[in-house]
């Protein structure tokens, strides 16, 4: 891989991917809608070219991706826009990959797996999503598989919830920011339930390794976090790092439902709250068997780096 295009470069995983690719000496195009944000994140970074554009406009993607070997699709949009937005974006991105004769790597989540079974989920686990958003993600996966059959080398990587530097729109970031500010802090979901989160630089390393291997295409890959961890354990780590001594409340499904009566975006969060009580935990056995050891930054270190980024260190 000599050149890569990262769509959604201003998001958490997009930012980590740009840094990982550029750090390996790969010419990287950082693509997002807002040029000012891209300049702030990547201005002056070696091996990075900034391209502002709209993923809803096929021409913008093709122009930004000229000469690209791999397109990384990390774009996310607000929940209320998912039903029509995500399929439209995917259609454009796959069309661009075809036109550019580029490979395609899709950053996916765990929604299509539906409910877990209390064990680590492998790539062979039946996908029976019971939520609207899970069914949308499964439809996107179908689109990727069809494109691969038509000649676009494509791979799908499933990740748990993100956290890390410059990953503001994440569930865990909400807690970290509120505790760092010293104000009223809240944790989304039950604090006694152990679930997993992936440190975005770890996810980026794992995905770039996949994207550089011909044999990885045409397949799905699970990229788990370091291990499972409870909300109480996370809060304890953040207290130690920040000196926060206030109470950390819990955002329950009931609270989300109540707020959702007046806020469409929060109403869309409601159906995904099952993941806070019945976590889907990914198995990384396939990756470690075929690719090698997964990057696994301990939560203490990952949270420390994330907090330092928030403080501007």
Automatic annotation (TrEMBL):
SUPFAM superfamilies with a match to the protein in the record: NAD(P)-binding Rossmann-fold domains
This one is known as: Membrane protein
Q: Which residues form the NAD-dependent epimerase/dehydratase domain?
A: 4-223
GO CC term, one of those recorded: cytoplasm
* Pfam families reported for this sequence: Epimerase (PF01370)
Q: Where is the signal peptide?
A: none
Any one Gene Ontology MF annotation carried by this entry is: aldehyde dehydrogenase (NAD+) activity
């Amino acid at each position: 891989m000599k050149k890569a295009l990262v769509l959604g470069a201003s998001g958490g995983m997009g930012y980590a991917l740009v840094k990982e690719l550029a750090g390996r000496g790969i010419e990287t195009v950082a693509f997002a809608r807002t040029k000012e944000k891209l300049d702030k994140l990547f201005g002056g970074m070696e091996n990075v070219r900034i391209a502002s554009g709209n993923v809803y406009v096929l021409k913008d993607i093709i122009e930004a991706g000229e000469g690209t070997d791999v397109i990384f699709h990390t774009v996310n949009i607000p929940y209320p826009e998912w039903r029509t937005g995500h399929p439209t974006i995917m259609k454009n991105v796959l069309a661009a990959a075809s036109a550019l004769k580029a490979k395609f790597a899709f950053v996916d989540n765990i929604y299509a797996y539906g409910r877990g079974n209390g064990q680590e989920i492998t790539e062979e686990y039946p996908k029976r999503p019971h939520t609207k958003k899970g069914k949308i993600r499964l439809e996107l996966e179908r689109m990727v598989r069809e494109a691969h059959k038509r000649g676009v080398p494509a791979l799908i990587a499933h990740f748990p919830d993100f956290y890390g530097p410059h990953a503001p729109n994440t569930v865990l970031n909400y807690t970290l920011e509120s505790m760092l500010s010293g104000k009223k802090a809240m944790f989304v979901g039950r604090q006694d339930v152990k679930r997993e989160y992936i440190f975005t630089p770890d996810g980026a390393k794992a995905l770039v390794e996949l994207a550089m291997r011909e044999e990885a295409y045409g397949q799905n890959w699970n990229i788990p976090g370091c291990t499972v961890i409870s909300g109480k354990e996370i809060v304890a780590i953040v207290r130690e790092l920040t000196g926060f001594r206030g109470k950390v409340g819990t955002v329950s499904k009931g609270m989300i439902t109540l707020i959702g009566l007046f806020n469409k975006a929060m109403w869309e969060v409601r159906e995904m709250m099952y993941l806070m009580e019945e976590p889907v935990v990914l198995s990384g056995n396939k990756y470690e068997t075929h690719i090698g050891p997964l990057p696994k930054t301990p939560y203490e270190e990952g949270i420390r780096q994330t907090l330092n980024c928030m403080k501007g260190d």
